[in-house]
Design brief:
Shape: globular
Strand content: 5-15%
Distance between the termini: 63 Å
Oligomer: single chain
Number of helices: 23
């Protein structure tokens, strides 16, 4: 196989009581090609216990009582695919690429054309299966592909040209890697003979993205395209999901070939590292630890997004309260009495209290991120820690567990549920739950009101009420993101789309765009801030042209709100370039977001009084198609609670805002 591949695996030594036993789960039909080259450049390859069983894609109704569905990645079986080409007919490499995508079940791509990808776009026009949603910027395209993947569970596909088109994908690739989102990004490249000559719009995108992709390829033989595309989707979806990049020179796209669709995958090294299903004896050890505990807490993250049903059953059987990370919101219903909602820097006081006082922390599908743990030594310092994660590199990386299993959380939860049902084990943590209920009553999420000024938290609460908590919510990054995490009560998985690990501003609008494409039946709302929104405001054009029913609720405070909050708390409110308005006309709202909407023929309105918020949001939701609601909020508001960076639970801040001095 004449292609170069990057990003291989390195597993760290297992900590004490770590259960990891490799097992080949994928059928390997032939030895690996001697030309297959791997470079050990990225530690901690994503690994999994097994592949998800193929199931038909589910949909979630927008009605109030509907539950939010989780789609399962499915590839179209080769024997059911009918090609538009005769089997022995030569066709261009670009047509082979498009058919390879069709065979993987791709229905939508987010592609922006250019010279080096022109052939691919010509081939897309010949496809009756794939529709291109044309973004107005490549970053908008990859964020839309992420929104598509996050909302559906299917891999998102984006395409860009060489040079600046390819480099505009970098933030999205990094975001997808940190949040474990399956993305297949395809870039055009200059012809092979010009690679390395500093040709027009040439960048070595494989080298640029080597450390921010799960795997990447530079295609050097047109015959490799069918295999590479199939392998790319397998890698993006299996184990810990992530982004895969395929770089295709223009002359490869133009070359004629009769493709071989039947070449088997050759991944013995990768498959060997896929961990097997958890052993029953190991799951029994976890259940014994639960039996011995008095104050257990579940700490669940994005790794539980595909195991929501098993998680709910596990909580029903054990009665253990659940704290979610930012990525894990919705895996367990925020409305359930056992939900502690979000933990961490801006998590609820009762979630952080529960972790601090717990004697057993069940960490499922999480990575002990610094925004969750704060001072790592003080995090869950009284607790025995059980860590289950599909990626062996995460186990013991930040916090050493007492017992760990490297495997699929879904299988582990299903196994423990079966054991609990067979043994009919009953736990009684009523006194612990009463203690936590006292904390809920003592430290509820709240906010202050000042006359008719609109508290941003109130606007989100009203949105939650009017959508019955069933909307898909995307966000930018900043204060509005944290308020959306706190005050919208997510009922199910894949409702909450947020750039969590990377914290990429400008994510909200294109992500909502991708979600609306993936889930046309759902209500999709981008809760955004003025700073984040303007970073990809050009995607309003795509929303309008595609007539996507994306609702944008803009919490506009004329500032970079989260940075302002830190200035208030730690820099004596000294403003260092965080005001986004026009300094010469501070009394006016600048820029006028309604004009952006008008330019793209999108209905829009502005609301400045609290008494008018409910009706304004109702109108936004009832208006067909896209809509922008500009909600003017005070910049003095702070996201609370707040545990300062590097702090512990005892350092939590629960009072104050920008109206006071610190």
């Amino acid at each position: 196989m004449a292609s170069t591949a990057a990003t291989a695996a390195a597993t760290r030594p297992s900590p004490p009581l770590s259960f990891y036993s490799p097992k080949i789960n994928y059928q390997i039909l032939s030895p690996i090609s001697p030309n297959y080259r791997k470079t050990n450049v990225y530690p901690g390859l994503c690994i999994s216990a097994s592949l998800t069983d193929p199931k038909p894609k589910l949909s979630a109704a927008a009605a109030a009582a509907a539950s939010v569905a989780t789609a399962v990645p499915v590839s179209v079986p080769v024997d059911t695919f009918v090609s538009r080409f005769a089997p022995d007919k030569p066709r261009k490499g670009c047509d082979v690429l498009v058919e390879a995508l069709e065979r993987e079940g791709v229905k939508h791509v987010f592609a922006y054309p250019g010279g080096a990808s022109l052939e691919i776009h010509q081939a897309l026009t010949r496809s009756n299966i794939i529709k291109n949603v044309l973004p107005r910027h490549e970053q908008g395209g990859i964020f839309a592909a992420e929104g598509y993947a996050r909302a559906s569970g299917l891999p998102g596909v984006c395409i860009a040209t060489s040079g600046p088109g390819a480099t505009n994908l970098v933030s999205g690739l990094a975001d997808a890697l940190l949040d474990s989102i399956p993305i297949v990004a395809i870039t055009g490249q200059v012809p092979r003979r010009m690679i390395g000559t500093d040709a027009f719009q040439e960048t070595p995108i494989v080298e640029v993205t080597r450390s921010i992709t799960k795997h990447n390829y530079l295609v050097l033989d047109v015959e490799d395209i069918p295999y590479i595309v199939r392998e790319a989707f397998f890698l993006a979806n299996s184990g810990r999901p992530g982004p895969v990049l395929i770089d295709i020179p223009k002359d490869i796209q133009q070359q004629l070939v009769v493709p071989n669709w039947d070449k088997p995958l050759q991944l013995p090294g990768y498959s060997f590292r896929l961990p097997k299903s958890p052993e029953e004896s190991h799951l029994e050890q976890i259940l014994r630890l639960i039996s011995d505990s008095k104050k257990p807490v579940l700490y669940v993250g994005g790794g539980c997004m595909n195991s929501s049903e098993e998680l709910r059953r596990f909580v029903d059987l054990t009665g253990i309260p659940v704290a979610s990370t930012l990525m894990g919101l919705g895996a367990f219903p925020c409305t359930d009495e056992l939900s502690l909602q979000m933990l961490g820097m801006h998590g609820t006081m009762y979630a952080n209290y529960a972790v601090d006082k717990s004697d057993l922390l069940l960490a499922f599908g999480v990575r002990f991120d610094d925004r969750v743990t704060g001072k790592i030594e003080a995090f869950a310092s009284r607790a025995k820690i059980v860590h289950i994660d599909i990626d062996s590199a995460e186990i013991g990386k930040n916090k050493q567990p007492h017992l760990s299993i490297c495997g699929d959380v879904k299988e582990a939860l299903a196994g423990m549920n079966r054991l609990l049902e067979e043994t009919r084990t009953k736990y009684n943590f009523s006194s612990w739950r009463e203690e936590l209920n006292e904390q809920k009553a003592k430290y509820p999420l709240n906010y202050k009101t000042f006359g008719e000024a609109i508290p941003p938290q109130y606007a989100i609460q009203v949105l939650d009420e009017l959508t019955n908590g069933n909307a898909i919510i995307s966000s930018g990054v900043g204060q509005h993101q944290m308020w959306a995490a706190q005050f919208y009560k997510y009922r199910g998985p894949r409702q909450w789309l947020s750039s969590s690990g990377l914290g990429a501003m400008g994510f909200g609008l294109p992500a909502a765009m991708g979600a609306a494409v993936a889930r046309p039946d759902a209500v999709v709302v981008d809760i955004d801030g003025d700073g984040s929104f303007i970073m990809n405001v050009q995607e309003l054009a795509t929303v309008r042209v595609e007539n996507l029913p994306v609702k944008i609720m803009l919490l506009n405070n004329q500032h970079l709100g989260m940075v302002v909050q830190w200035e208030d708390r730690f820099y004596k409110a000294n403003r260092a370039h965080t005001y986004l308005g026009n300094p010469s006309r501070e009394a006016e709202i600048f820029p006028n977001m309604l004009k952006f909407a008008e330019a793209c023929d999108i209905p829009a309105a502005r609301v400045t009084k609290k008494s008018e918020v409910r009706e304004a949001i109702r109108k936004m939701l009832e208006t067909p198609g896209p809509y922008l609601l500009d909600v003017i909020v005070p910049h003095q508001e702070h996201v609370l609670p707040m545990i300062p960076s590097g702090g512990a639970f005892k350092d939590a801040i629960t009072e104050g805002d920008g109206r006071a001095a610190y």
